[in-house]
Amino acid sequence: MGDLGNYAWKFNANSQSLKDFDAVLRAIREKKIFDSKEDNSVKKLLKVVVPISESIKGNLTESIVINERNIVDIMKSKHSGEWPQYRERLLNLESKLKMERVVFSQNDLQLLNDIADALDAECANLFKRMNER
Questions:
Q1: Backbone φ/ψ region at 39: left (φ over 0), alpha (ψ -120 to 50), beta
Q2: Residues 39 and 24: beta-carbon distance below 8 Å
Q3: What's the sign of the alpha-carbon dihedral 2, 77, 54, 38?
Q4: Count of C-beta atoms within a 10 Å radius of residue 72
Q5: Burial class (CB within 10 angstroms; exposed 0-12, middle 13-18, buried 19+) of 62
Q6: For residues 41 and 104, is the Cβ–Cβ distance under 8 A?
Q7: Using one digit for the tens of pLDDT, what is the confidence trace for 38-68?
Q8: In terms of C-beta density within 10 A (0-12 exposed, 13-18 middle, 19 or more buried), how is residue 78 classed?
Q9: 82-125 tens-digit pLDDT
C-alpha cells in the first residue's frame, strides 16, 4: 500500500473513532452516569482512552483505531506547562472508566473534550497529508 493508501486507511480509522467518541460525549452530557457493564458507551470511550494511556505509560499498544502517539503529542503540546498533572488526570480517567458505575465530573468532560479535540486534529493532519499526495 502506498503512502496515500496508508494515510487514507489511518484517516478512516481515526475518523470513525472520532465519530463514535463524539456520539458518546453527547450522550454523557445528557446522562452523566453510566453502568459500564450494560452500556457500550464506556467501551467506545475505552477504545480511544486505553491506547492513549498505554502510550503515556510508555507501553506499546496494538490499537488500530487511533494514532495514539500523535494524539498524545498533540495533547502534550497544548498542556506542556502542566503535563505531569495532566498526564495523571488522563491516567485517572482511564481507571474511572473501568469502574462498574461511572459518574462523570466536569473535569472528566473537559478531559474527554480534549481527547476529542486531539483526535480531530489528528484527522485533519491525516486529511492534509492525503491531499498533498
A1: beta
A2: no
A3: negative
A4: 20
A5: exposed
A6: no
A7: 668 888 899 999 999 999 999 988 777 788 9
A8: middle
A9: 999 999 999 999 999 988 788 888 899 999 999 999 999 999 98
